[in-house]
Amino acid sequence: MIHPSGFRPGDGRLTHELDPQDTGPQDACGVFGVWAPGEEVAKLAYFGLYALQHRGQESAGIAVSNGKQILVYKDMGLVSQVFDEATLQSLQGYLAIGHARYSTTGSSVWENAQPTFRATAHGAVALGHNGNLTNTGELARLAAERRTTSGAGDKHAMTSDTGLMTELLASYSDRSLEDAAAEVLPQLRGAFSLVFMDETTLYAARDPQGVRPLMLGRLDRGWVVASEQAALDTVGASFIREIEPGELIAVDENGLRSRHFAEPQPKGCVFEYVYLARPDATISGRNVHAARVEMGRTLAREAPVEADLVIATPESGTPAAIGFAEESGIPFGQGFVKNAYVGRTFIQPSQTLRQLGVRLKLNALREVIEGKRLVVVDDSIVRGNTQRAVSKMLREAGATEVHLRISSPPVKWPCFYGIDFATRAELIANGLNTDEIAKSIGADSLAYITLDGMTAATHQPADRLCRACFDGVYPIALPEDELLGKHLLEISVDPLAHTDALSRP
């Protein structure tokens, strides 16, 4: 049942548990929006989110409006687990937004699933967010002040930066949602690619640095916005352009209109090219698959090794492994079988299974790798757990040598713009040098691509990219340490107590 407020209580409020081998960087979220009278917009949103599932696997939700009322349906789990035919049929309208979540601010619980929903003086607003704000403490203070002076808002909204933005947008009783957005958006700091809506209008906005991607597409009878082009292709929309950094667009019965709320200062996330985006994505004119293949070629030139076979850690390492094989002349082979039916599991393995090393996703192909000197290509190393398990499997299957090659530089810094890396203390590259890491994970050798080599493969100038997780240079100012953290809005922090908090570069 969908409650009049637009929310349906979850069947269960579960915490998530990944495959125990899956300890790499967690993806940014995926957002989708569609304005298309005469179309089944809930189903378009469903299939759009399906194409973006790789960007968020903790929860999913869709908001739909028929012009008079917004209904929101969301729950924990994958898109295919949250929605069924009956649910989608109940979400009737001509305007919809959708969201697939991985939590970067706020816990992975039903209350923080998106889209968020708030009543306004003129109706309601629903919002989905990809990214992570860095000035949540400042914004929480602003929301508290507005709540005190106007009585607007809801303290419960402040358990995530998305709820905080939604509360602020809903707090302007004297203006339309579009005008409220023009007031709120310039006050946000950090990475945000947004889709939001009232009863009649679809909105999309992107931070001035354009850290996370956001695409605009055209249907025969409407418009679509999505995190990646694959979602446009899936629903039959033609790609028009990227939403520009610092741009707000609105789509209603009068068509599409655009305004800039800030001067563009492009700093696209380089990790989108390395890992986050689907290989068929195109970002800033550069195809992601082609960039990854080029990273592999560069890696082969920068870190050659004698070997019999190049294999990938599926699936994210495959394009770079192909490039490495092409450049080195070493044959490319399939070293692992991947279980195509394993997604996120909410069931924690027993201690016995943990000790045995549960292999839900990968199994080594002994017939291919036995007696071989292997080059194993992966996209990144975070804690090293995945690579340690891979090396162990390959040794057990008879590999004589394991040479690990990584198509990104060492990850030494946390991300505050929408990727949930480990803390800096947990990043293996901060505690060990390259030789020590190789020994720790059981590899005969280890080498990374250089920062310049990776950057060149994107075809983007270095000054238009955020590379902070590799070089520690954060392009958007960060607040003091006590105002950072995934759970900042869920702990007892008085937003009015940090009025003098200074930003640091």
TrEMBL record:
Q: Which residues make up the binding site for [4Fe-4S] cluster?
A: 269, 415, 466, 469
The reaction(s) annotated as catalysed by this protein in its Swiss-Prot or TrEMBL entry are: 5-phospho-beta-D-ribosylamine + L-glutamate + diphosphate = 5-phospho-alpha-D-ribose 1-diphosphate + L-glutamine + H2O
Entry annotation: catalytic residues: 29
Which Gene Ontology terms cover its molecular function? 4 iron, 4 sulfur cluster binding; amidophosphoribosyltransferase activity; magnesium ion binding
Keywords assigned: 4Fe-4S, Glutamine amidotransferase, Glycosyltransferase, Iron, Iron-sulfur, Magnesium, Metal-binding, Purine biosynthesis, Transferase
Record-listed Mg(2+) binding positions: 316, 378-379
Per UniProt, the cofactor note for this protein states: Binds 1 [4Fe-4S] cluster per subunit.
Q: Where is the composition biased (Basic and acidic residues)?
A: 10-19
| Entry annotated with the keyword Transferase | yes
Q: Which cofactor does it need?
A: [4Fe-4S] cluster; Mg(2+)
Pfam families hit by this protein:
GATase_6
Which InterPro entries does the record cross-reference, listed alphabetically? GATase_2_dom, Ntn_hydrolases_N, PRTase-like, PRTase_dom, PurF, PurF_N
Keyword Glycosyltransferase in the entry? The reply is yes
Q: Please, one GO biological process term?
A: 'de novo' IMP biosynthetic process
Pathway, per UniProt? Purine metabolism; IMP biosynthesis via de novo pathway; N(1)-(5-phospho-D-ribosyl)glycinamide from 5-phospho-alpha-D-ribose 1-diphosphate: step 1/2
Q: What is its EC number?
A: 2.4.2.14
Glutamine amidotransferase type-2 domain segment(s): 29-254
Family in the record: In the C-terminal section; belongs to the purine/pyrimidine phosphoribosyltransferase family.
UniProt function note: Catalyzes the formation of phosphoribosylamine from phosphoribosylpyrophosphate (PRPP) and glutamine.
Q: Which NCBIfam families match?
A: purF
Query: What is the name of the protein in this document?
Result: Amidophosphoribosyltransferase
Organism of this sequence? Catenulispora acidiphila (strain DSM 44928 / JCM 14897 / NBRC 102108 / NRRL B-24433 / ID139908)
User: Which gene does this sequence derive from?
Assistant: purF
